[in-house]
Amino acid sequence: MRSYRRHRLLVPVLLCALAVLGARPAAAPLEPGSGTGTGGSTGLSAEVARLYEEAAVTTQQYEAGRREAEEQRAEVQRAEGLLDAQRRHIAALHEDLGRIARAQYRSNGGLPVAAHMILADSPDSLMRGQRAFSQADLAVNNAISRNRRAEARLAADEARAADRWQALERRKAQLAGLKADIERKLESARSQLQGEADAAAAAGACRGAVRLDQPETGFTEGDWVAPVETYELSASYGSGGARWSNRHTGQDFAVPIGTPVRAVGAGRVVRVACGGAFGMEVVLEHAGGYYTQYAHLASLAVDPGEHVSPGQWIGQSGTTGNSTGPHLHFEARITAESGSSVDPVPWLAARGVSL
C-alpha cells in the first residue's frame, strides 16, 4: 500500500512538471542590434578578420621579398658590370704579359746571366742589364699574381651573386604561394560572410554584435582617423548617377568584403540596423552634435548605446543593401537621420584626416 501511494503521488508531480516545461516560452529571436551574435557568424567574422590580417602581413612579406629580390637583381647587374671591368682588366694583364715577354725577347732578356756577363761592355753595362732583367722579371711575376687574384675574385663574386639571387627567387616563390593560398581562403570566407549578411539584411533582423579581437590602435580619445585603413576612394559626395534618387550623400571607400571598419572618432552608437537601401549600418554620435554613418556592412561589432573609441572596429565592410559592389558608404551628418549629411571629405580634413 505504501508503494502504491508513492506512485499515486508521483504521477501528479510529473504531470505538473511537464505542464510547466510546456508553458515556458521559446527563445525569442534577437532584436536588431541586440545580443552578441551567433556562434557560426562569430566564428566566420573572426575568421575573416584573422585571414584579412594574415593576408595583409603575408602581402607585406611578399612585397618586402620582391623588393629585396629586385634590389639583389640590381646588385647582381652592378656586380656584372664590375665583373666585366675585371674581365677587361684580366685581358689587359694578359696583354701586359705578352708585351713584357716581347720586350725581353727583343732586348735579349731571355739570355742566361753568363751570356750577359760575356757580352757586357763594362761592369756598369752589366749592372744595368741585370737591373733591367730583374725589374722585368718582377713585373712579369706581379702581373701573373694580379691576374690570378682577379680571376679568383671574379669566380667568387659570380658564385655569391648567383647563390644570393637564386635564394631570393625561391623565397619570393614560397611567399607568392602562401599569399595565394591565404587569399583563396579569405575569398571563400568573405563569400560566406556576405551570404549571411545578405540573409540578415533581407530579413531586416541583425544577428547582434560580433566581437572581434582588435590589435592595439595607439589612438587617444581626441584623435580622428579614416573609417578604413587602406582604401581607394570611389563615388564622392554630391556625385550623380542612376543609383541614387538625388545626389550621392556620402563618400564611398572601395574595399574588399570583410575589411575592418573603424570609428572615425570617439562617440556613442545611436543606431544599428539591417535592411533597406543601406543594408547593415551603424550610426555614431560624436561631440559637437555631429553623427557618422557606416553602411553596406557585412557584420556588426557594436550594439546600440555602446561607447566607442577612435579607430575601434565597429563592423566589417560588405555589399548589403543598395550596393553594386563591395565598399563602405560613409556619411557625416548633423542629425542621426538621412537627409542631413555634409561633405565628409572636408569634414574629416578639418579634424586632421586627409583622404
- Biggest sheet architecture: 10 strands, antiparallel
Computed Rg: 40 Å
Flag low-confidence runs: 1-39
**Can you give the helix content as a percent range?**
40-55%
Individual helix count:
5
Strand content: 5-15%
Broad structural category: alpha+beta
**How many strands appear in the DSSP assignment?**
10
Q: What is the 3D form?
A: elongated
Distance between the termini: 88 Å
Arithmetic mean of pLDDT: 79
Order of helices and strands: HHHHEEEEEEEEEEH
Description:
The protein is α+β, with helices and mostly antiparallel strands and 355 residues long. The chain is 52% helix and 14% strand. The protein contains 5 helices and 10 strands; from the N terminus they run H-H-H-H-E-E-E-E-E-E-E-E-E-E-H. Strands 1, 2, 3, 4, 5, 6, 7, 8, 9 and 10 form a 10-stranded antiparallel beta sheet that branches.
Features:
single chain; 355 residues; alpha+beta; ten-stranded antiparallel sheet; 5 helices; disordered N terminus
Describe the structure in brief.
This protein is an alpha+beta fold. The chain is built from 5 helices and 10 strands; from the N terminus they run ααααββββββββββα.
List the helices and strands and how they pair.
Layout: H1 2-23, H2 39-106, H3 113-119, H4 123-203, E1 232-233, E2 251-254, E3 260-262, E4 267-273, E5 280-286, E6 290-300, E7 307-308, E8 313-317, E9 328-333, E10 341-342, H5 344-349
Antiparallel strand pairs: 1-2, 2-9, 3-8, 4-5, 4-7, 5-6, 6-8, 6-9, 9-10
Helix pairs in contact: 2-4
